[in-house]
Predict the structure.
Amino acid sequence: MLAKSTVLRIWQKKARELALSAEDHSSPLARRPYDLRHARLSTWLNAGVSPKQVAEWAGNSVEVLHRTYEKCLVGHDEIAMRRISDVLRPRAREPVGKDQPDTTGHPHLIQNTKKPRSSR
């Protein structure tokens, strides 16, 4: 296993330049190899991947994931509120299919499914 200082030195000297486009290389993106991990996990969380799944992939607990990456979540309040509204919104009646006649207002068209009582 390589020492952290060795990895960082290799990354800063040549690997970062080879891995990134010229524009990204001149930006603060991925100054350290750890920044790539941070970007990846933040992207997964913002894409809506479950925190439990991201934590498993990252080798973290959900608690550590939330503590570290919660500040990176963008727009999740709005997404949650929209999901709640969608669940609570009244649904339109399903259209009557050709095999299901419309019996609304016509109780005599509904077949009686109760079994008749036997007389003894």
Helices lie at 4-19, 22-25, 33-46, 51-58, 62-69, 76-88. The chain has a mean pLDDT of 78.
